[in-house]
Amino acid sequence: xxxxxxxxxxxxxxxxxxxxxxxxxxxxxxxxxxxxxxxxxxxxxxxxxxxxxxxxxxxxxxxxxxxxxxxxxxxxxxxxxxxxxxxxxxxxxxxxxxxxxxxxxxxxxxxxxxxxxxxxxxxxxxxxxxxxxxxxxxxxxxxxxxxxxxxxxxxxxxxxxxxxxxxxxxxxxxxxxxxxxxxxxxxxxxxxxxxxx
Amino acid sequence: xxxxxxxxxxxxxxxxxxxxxxxxxxxxxxxxxxxxxxxxxxxxxxxxxxxxxxxxxxxxxxxxxxxxxxxxxxxxxxxxxxxxxxxxxxxxxxxxxxxxxxxxxxxxxxxxxxxxxxxxxxxxxxxxxxxxxxxxxxxxxxxxxxxxxxxxxxxxxxxxxxxxxxxxxxxxxxxxxxxxxxxxxxxxxxxxxxxxxxxxxxxxxxxxxxxxxxxxxxxxxxxxxxxxxxxxxxxxxxxxxxxxxxxxxxxxxxxxxxxxxxxxxxxxxxxxxxxxxxxxxxxxxxxxxxxxxxxxxxxxxxxxxxxxxxxxxxxxxxxxxxxxxxxxxxxxxxxxxxxxxxxxxxxxxxxxxxxxxxxxxxxxxxxxxxxxxxxxxxxxxxxxxxxxxxxxxxxxxxxxxxxxxxxxxxxxxxxxxxxxxxxxxxxxxxxxxxxxxxxxxxxxxxxxxxxxxxxxxxxxxxxxxxxxxxxxxxxxxxxxxxxxxxxxxxxxxxxxxxxxxxxxxxxxxxxxxxxxxxxxxxxxxxxxxxxxxxxxxxxxxxxxxxxxxxxxxxx
Lengths: 197, 555
What we know:
- The structure holds two protein chains of two kinds.
- Chain A has one domain: 3-Layer(aba) Sandwich (Pyruvate-ferredoxin Oxidoreductase, domain 3), CATH 3.40.920.10.
- By secondary structure, chain A is α/β, with parallel strands linked by helices.
- Chain A has helices at 15-28, 77-83, 103-106, 116-121, 132-139, 145-154, 161-171, 174-190; strands at 2-10, 32-37, 47-55, 69-74, 87-95, 126-129.
- Chain B is of the alpha/beta class.
- Chain B is built from 20 helices and 21 strands.
- In chain B, α10 (218-226) links the parallel β9 and β10 (230-235).
- Chains A and B meet through α1, β2, α2 and α3 of A and β7, α10 and β19 of B.
């Protein structure tokens, strides 16, 4: 049985870092893991998507099947809606309501949808709002919004908390680790409903 | 390995920096892929093991040495990694570089995950040395930019003696020698075809006889995901193919389906071997594969899968806030220029609202195209725009051509001191090597003048008026002209000035600042608002504002 996590957001929000930490955590927890993403455009404000799959058995495809994501994790509202169709029936969409206007809205005359929340709810069994950016900003490190979201995500996945903490430690210099571990804890507290399997 | 060379190109760019970090021999960014391969050939001649990395279009640049290398052969093993980009996530085309293996007749390996990649490279060196041929290792995005677990054996430091023996009959490809080498090459090839029948690069996984799937690369993973019960022929050495073993496999299954990225290379090759491969919709050769698409292929269909809500505003990549290229495009747009463009972040200048770049073909092509256009018209009808790294890669020859064959072309070199779009790599005009050590710095203006172009100016694109003046002067001049717009990439310099903000009282909502396409400027009910967190303080918006409504905040 494979766990499939789709992470999405805007280039620069730290999606690739978050998926790297999750993959590392899953590996540390003893799973076979595959992760895939597209580089290159990520720092230019384009949409970013990363697929993470892990299982106690062998994982083959690095890409999640259509409509096969157990959790869709979105750091930005529009990207959450754009990727919502990946969510399987009964799956979870975890998202921040933060809006970053794309160039097509700012200068192209298109509209940022006003009904994102309602439309998101149609794609998933459960939708959960995580104020990741707000929490990170209050913590004094807005760039850690991705780690806050990772903390929130951890409540829904069969990976021990210790594995995330070790993975975070592996991924950054010790100077930055403290605040990121706090960000992780705050995110975990946001969704601390024990909803994980 | 002892020697690594290449040129940045998604999805291959991460390989050389990773090797540099491991401290493996000499690793360099070469000027372009042709240089990289030629240097690697030299290293191989001296007995070193060499690895060359590039994306699929980069192999086009290295094709000249690549073909004749199959005749001369190697000394130290030589592996060429070509990373294809199906679906053109960041390329100008999605061609299948596997055709090079067949055209040049060199062995080719296709790893199906990271463990394969690690194992195959090691074995590729042995293969290369034993059969006296370069080896092409071909991967695609979902192999390169996927992370999968790898187990390594202990690291061996192999002390290799380097020496240089004079063997002109092997390495000097004059016709008399080349004909002999070609015949020898064919002999080695037949030996390889024999090896192919038993090599462990390929693997048969017996399953249900009703369905036989022949596959390579990441397509193998997708097929295993959606049809685990089938019989599989996993191909790791995609060229030469094991004719007998494939016939044996085909005879044991009712249906024979080939799944591959980008296709239909394998399918055609199998049919040429006399096998009955099912025909798939030709559109399966377009774009990337996925588990769903492979499931469709097995059913004989090209399923496109679900899409997101189609009314959502797209989010294309854009030039960063503070990008020095923006001012140049604003100036070119104002002057209503036809702009022949090239490959880099600045290719984004083609998108609205900048809409100031009108062609992009391949590395260095913008300069050549401008020359052709301006020669036909006999005047400056087109301006070429090219980045510093792209210029060094393959713009120099085009510029010399402009000077030598005399067209009234204006070339704008966007010098942001990096190879930005691929991740900020160094190049000969940055003054640093791949590892960040100081290096001789190529003088772009010196080179332009050496080509015989006197009209060369350097401007700082922080000042829009200066850029416009320089461009107009260049357009009015009576010969070729170069404008070098020089300012470091904003991701590189990280220097920030105080942000700007819009005074709503003074703003007349003309929309000029919104036409810059700057991600820091958005509009609320027509009124522009600047995001202080994104603004880098470049001041371009203030320069285009007709009412001075945009001013810089206090530090």
